[in-house]
């Protein structure tokens, strides 16, 4: 399914066509090359002082990590996300070595996930970022230090038809037109 966007000026097709579907083809195995390329794209994102304050947990469908991440999902994410081929948990290093706050960590992590998402789109994959999960459960399961916080889970895979979704609410969301605030609404 494609969801074209209307822009006031043309933008790169990879950006114009990227969106966050919830319908994933069950049983698609992501290649090592695809996963490595997504992580490479994230790795080369800019960051303040080149600190690269991010860590990623990669879990492929069917492995123990995937099951643990699935168990942490909240709400309707439990319905659709387990069909993804992989989960990538994006974590931010929120503290400096001296224990002070690393104020740009979330911004930097967001840039790296943005790069990852664009690379996925370029490779014919789709991504959907989720904040609906129990962050404490996941942090405990993966024994994360206090300085590292899971921020989003990224579902990755091949897109399926919207009819693959189990509920009318999810199908309606999948099929509804994309919308964004206008440029006038996001500028001062």
Summed over residues and divided by their number, the pLDDT gives a mean of: 95
- What does the radius of gyration come to? 17 Å
What's the shape?
globular
The strand line-up of the biggest sheet is 1-2-4-3
* Domains, number: 1
Fraction of residues in helix? 25-40%
Helix segment tally: 8
Poorly predicted sequence stretches spanning 5 or more consecutive residues:
none
Span between termini: 35 Å
**Number of DSSP strands?**
4
Q: Strand share of the residues? A: 15-25%
Biggest β-sheet strands, sense, barrel? 4 strands, antiparallel
What is the assembly state of the chains in this entry? single chain
Helix and strand succession? HHEHHEHEHEHH
Would you mind describing this structure in some detail?
The protein has 188 residues and is an alpha+beta fold. The chain has one domain: NADH Oxidase, CATH 3.40.109. The chain has eight helices and four strands, in the order H-H-E-H-H-E-H-E-H-E-H-H. The chain has helices spanning 13-17, 32-43, 64-72, 77-80, 105-122, 135-141, 168-175, 183-186, and strands at 54-60, 86-93, 126-130, 148-157. Helix 2 (32-43) packs antiparallel against helix 5 (105-122). The longest helix is centred in the middle third of the chain and has 18 residues, at 105-122. The model has no long low-confidence stretch (mean pLDDT 95).
């Amino acid at each position: 399914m494609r969801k074209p966007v209307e822009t006031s000026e043309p933008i790169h097709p990879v950006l114009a066509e990227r969106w966050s579907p919830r319908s994933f083809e069950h049983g698609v195995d992501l290649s090592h090359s695809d996963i490595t390329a997504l992580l490479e794209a994230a790795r080369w994102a800019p960051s303040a002082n080149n600190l690269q304050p991010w860590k990623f947990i990669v879990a492929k469908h069917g492995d123990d990590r995937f099951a643990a991440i699935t168990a942490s999902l909240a709400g309707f994410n439990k319905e659709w996300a387990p069909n993804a081929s992989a989960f990538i948990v994006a974590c931010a290093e929120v503290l400096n070595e001296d224990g002070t706050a690393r104020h740009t960590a979330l911004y930097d992590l967001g840039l790296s996930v943005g790069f990852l998402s664009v690379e996925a789109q370029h490779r014919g994959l789709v991504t959907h970022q989720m904040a609906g999960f129990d962050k404490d459960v996941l942090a405990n399961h993966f024994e994360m230090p206090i300085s590292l916080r899971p921020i989003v889970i990224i579902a990755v895979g091949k897109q399926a038809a919207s009819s693959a979704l189990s509920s009318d609410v999810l199908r309606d969301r999948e099929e509804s037109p994309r919308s964004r605030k206008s440029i006038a609404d996001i500028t001062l």
